[in-house]
């Protein structure tokens, strides 16, 4: 069963075409990684799926009822805003316009605390968000998205600016959530793409590739990025896989 179907989708920003004739199907329970260069249309595609942008052509079919759990890049998050971890997570329970002096229900607070406990961040519930590490803040944003009990989660660069250990922790968490949720994640980290996701979509205005073979062909990657790409293979001993040089073939 496809939970998302994108058909002949095109999006223009004035005279500039950001997405051109995109066709994409996302199956229930899939862990999809979307890769591509900056300006290639990845965030635009996410905004279309979220209903924030109306396409110029084509359509998107959403075949589930619950809201999408969205996790934005936390680089766009004002960490100096005077708000606690608990309150950030509770914002995920808001519906419609925010009322002045809004008070959350006891069951919503209990639900937020249960989510925090499951993600290992309950001890931080009263901390101001500026006191968190990057990895801790990312878990807070994931917890906020989980407040709507989503069937599908969309994450935009969830490990940007995180250290290697925090990246591993976040993706292990997403893999665990993937047991009962469909997950779409935009990432520039090819190592993560090869290590965690089930399927990959390569996007640079056009969709160049979508399939379950995460050992991507060098030609596909160079077509997507428009330049030679250095692959990093993960395993017991991390190593780089480079193209054969002409002099090595002689």
From TrEMBL:
Keyword Kinase annotated: no
Molecular function GO labels: ATP binding; ATP hydrolysis activity
InterPro entries recorded: AAA+_ATPase, ABC_transporter-like_ATP-bd, ABC_transporter-like_CS, Metal_Ion_Import_ABC, P-loop_NTPase
Matching Pfam families: ABC_tran (PF00005)
Cross-referenced CDD domains: ABC_Metallic_Cations
Occurrences of domain ABC transporter (ranges): 4-230
Top-level taxon: Bacteria
Keywords of this entry: ATP-binding, Nucleotide-binding, Transport
PANTHER family: METAL TRANSPORT SYSTEM ATP-BINDING PROTEIN TM_0124-RELATED (PTHR42734:SF17)
Protein family according to the UniProt entry: Belongs to the ABC transporter superfamily.
This protein's name: Metal ABC transporter ATP-binding protein
Highest classification ranks of the organism: Bacteria, Bacillati, Bacillota, Tissierellia, Tissierellales
